[in-house]
Amino acid sequence: MVFVLHWLPFSRGNRSQILLLGDFNHFPGDPEFGDIIQRAEQAIEGGVFPERISQGSSGSYFVKDSKGKILGVFKPKSEEPYGHLNPKWTKYFHKLCCPCCFGRGCLIPNQGYLSEVAASLVDTRLGLGVVPKTKAVYLVSETFHYNTIDRAKSRGKKYALEMVPKVGRHFHRVGLPPKLGSFQLFVEGYHEADYWLRRFEAEPLPENIRKQLQSQFERLVILDYVIRNTDRGNDNWLIKYEKPGEGEGEKAIQIAAIDNGLAFPFKHPDEWRAYPFHWACLPQAKVPFSQETRELVLSRLSDMNFVQDLCEDLYELFMADKGFDKTMFERQMSVMRGQILNLSQALKDNKTPIQLVQMPRVVVERRRTGGQGRVVTLGTAFTQTFHCKRPFFSSW
Predict the structure, then answer these.
(1) Which of 81, 182, 273, 389 could be 113's S-S partner, Cβ–Cβ 3.0 to 4.6 Å?
(2) By CB neighbour count within 10 A (0-12 exposed, 13-18 middle, 19+ buried), where does 115 fall?
(3) Per the record, GO CC terms (predicted)?
(4) What percent of the chain lies above the pLDDT cut of 70?
């Protein structure tokens, strides 16, 4: 995919502004999403800047329209927990004071934005409908965290453009550099899962609503298990509940799976921590998967052609990153294939989510075939192996 930049300088008062046009954020297959991004860009140009979110250990921002309404959450690659421009210092001290426990050893560093987008892709391919639409975009804003050099260059070029326009027109870029990151649409009316789960304990749901919650919960389980999410607590998935007669939609309960940036490991966790799925402790995890859920995903997960197509779609997404490593990507897909194999068997055997996470961990690797010289190609045959090494602290 080729991105084309068109920069057009214009003036507003004493400030030189930069207008981003053309195919930089171009979504021909999703004009609705493209329109939202365009509204966000126009708002930034109009002085309605993204607002940094205080929670979390990385730089993430509420992006708004010209009226101040939140459109989505933008997470720049450079401001991820271990990114070089992370504006929050907790991870810096973590790295400085405790290097032996730095990061998650099973994840590729600074791939969080891709993980967010890939989770949305998996959600769409499986028809789960629990991940708010997420895509990779470029945005520029004064409120993003830039280093001193970038800001000095921007000021200098703007000054040159105003004082010596003929010279300024030759600059490749006048403003701050665009940031690549994940943009997830904002969902309204949702609360953290903990909030509603405690309410439901005190005020049990009617049976038909309880079944809706169970169905949505099972979709969350499938998503997290397939992508092997290493950071799913009850504070980063959301529930929207409208009592019968209050809402306009058909569903009284809906779940939104946000914060999917720590998924797609290249190996199963096997060092210090297990990174368990915290939903496995909930009562809903003790109920066997429903027939509705099996009918939704089992035929797809059992089809190796579907699984291979999914891997190829993810390849197209991940390879766009500058740090892409094909060998590491294949290891990520080997873990995902193993998760899909386990999940398919659990659905066939009428297991519960808690039984699913207790199954032996599997890796399904593509066999390497001979090639000419040093070239090694990957074949269409697969090898299944069990991952026996367990983390030091493990609850499974």
Answers:
(1) 182
(2) buried
(3) cytosol; early endosome membrane; endoplasmic reticulum membrane; Golgi membrane; lysosomal membrane; plasma membrane; trans-Golgi network
(4) 78
